[in-house]
Amino acid sequence: MPGGSSLFSGFRVLALYSNHVPHALRFHKKHREFYLLTAAGKCFHTYNVNKLGIVSVSNSLSDDITVLAADRMLVFVAAGRLVSAFARNKEVVMCFHGHEQEVRLLLPLGDQLISADAGGDVIVWDVQGGDIYLRLHFDSASFSVSAMMHPSTYLNKVLLGSSQGALQLWNIKTSKLLFTFPGWSAGVTVLQQSPAVDVVGVGTATGRIIIHNIRLDETLMSFTQDWGPISSLAFRTGDVLQLL
């Protein structure tokens, strides 16, 4: 390109600097800015969203990163069977040992962290002490956990989706299954809270998107894309509620 390489320009294509692992987004309350986290092998990169300029590179782990998640204080990273918590986007401050198979999902929830592995174990961790608060085991043949989310305003509740298509609502404080949704005959790939309380977006492996009221167990609407499974969902507010 005229004027030299664009490698170090302020705006860049993130796909050139990350792998297939979905990114994580976090908001820094003190800086009043959003930061984007992308996995790059055994470490992760932190970008300032406003300029897409790199802010920091984390210390390396022993295995490649498979899952990224973040809350306002920490970045949680799964690599193989190990889950690590990073502070300041760089340093490991806590390690969570307890999974016997590769961790596939992470969900920060207040002072707790929920992780799910390929063998059917779902573990609720106490983030401060690193102790196991609750362990649930699911039979992968009947309910293989493929997605997790915390429904807004539902205290101590977690919604789990499965590759078989069913959904389950759990109370992680009492370790009780509250409700089972039969699903829509397609594996669940994504669960996303909408701006409306009780309403959840469900993405499936067949390309169908369902907008479902979990309090009433009522499907409000559905959409279908014909070019593959749903990999992510987001809602945008404004004059008209939009699904992206």
Descriptive overview:
- Helices cover 0% and strands 50% of the residues.
- It is globular and about 55 Å long.
- The strands form six sheets. It has a four-stranded antiparallel β-sheet with strand order 1-2-3-4, with no helix packed on it. A four-stranded antiparallel β-sheet has the order 5-6-7-8, with no helix packed on it. The protein has a four-stranded antiparallel β-sheet with strand order 9-10-11-12, with no helix packed on it.
- β17 and β18 (199-204) form a beta hairpin.
- It is mostly beta strands.
- The chain has two domains: 1-137, Methylamine Dehydrogenase, Chain H (7 Propeller), CATH 2.130.10; 142-244, Lipocalin (Beta Barrel).
Task: Give the helices and strands as they follow along the chain.
Answer: EEEEEEEEEEEEEEEEEEEEEE
| Percentage of residues assigned to helices | under 10%
- Shape, per Cα inertia axes: globular
Spans of at least 5 consecutive residues whose pLDDT stays below 50 are none
Indicate how many domains the architecture comprises.
Answer: 2
First-to-last CA distance: 34 Å
Mean pLDDT: 90
In angstroms, what is the radius of gyration?
Answer: 19 Å
Largest sheet, order of strands side by side?
Answer: 1-2-3-4
Q: Strand-residue fraction?
A: over 45%
Please name the CATH architecture of the largest domain.
7 Propeller
Largest sheet report: 4 strands, antiparallel
The level-1 CATH class of the largest domain: Mainly Beta
Please report the number of helical segments: 0
Going by helix content, strand content and strand pairing, the class is mainly beta
CATH fold description of the largest domain: Methylamine Dehydrogenase, Chain H
- CATH homologous superfamily identity of the largest domain: YVTN repeat-like/Quinoprotein amine dehydrogenase
Count the E strands. Answer: 22
Domain WDR36/Utp21 N-terminal: 37-239
Organism: Pagothenia borchgrevinki (Bald rockcod)
Protein name: WDR36/Utp21 N-terminal domain-containing protein
